[in-house]
Amino acid sequence: MRAAQPGRHNAITDVAGVLVGHVTRDEPGRLTGVSVVVPPPGTTGGVDVRGGAPGTRETDLLDPTCLVDRVDAVVLSGGSAFGLATADGVMQAAYAAGLGWPVGAPDDVVPIVPAAVVFDLGRGGGFLHYPDAADGRAAFDAATDGPVALGALGAGTGARAGGLRGGVGSASAVVDGVRVGALVVVNAMGSPCDRDGSLYAVRSGLADEFAHVPVPDPALAQAYWAERAAEEDTLRAGTATTIGVVATDATLSKVQCRALARVSHDGLARALSPVHTAYDGDTLFALATGERPAPSDLDLVRLQTVAADCVTRAVGHAMLATVSVDRSADGGIALSSWTERLTRG
Question: CB count, 10 Å around CB of 95?
Answer without folding.
Answer: 16
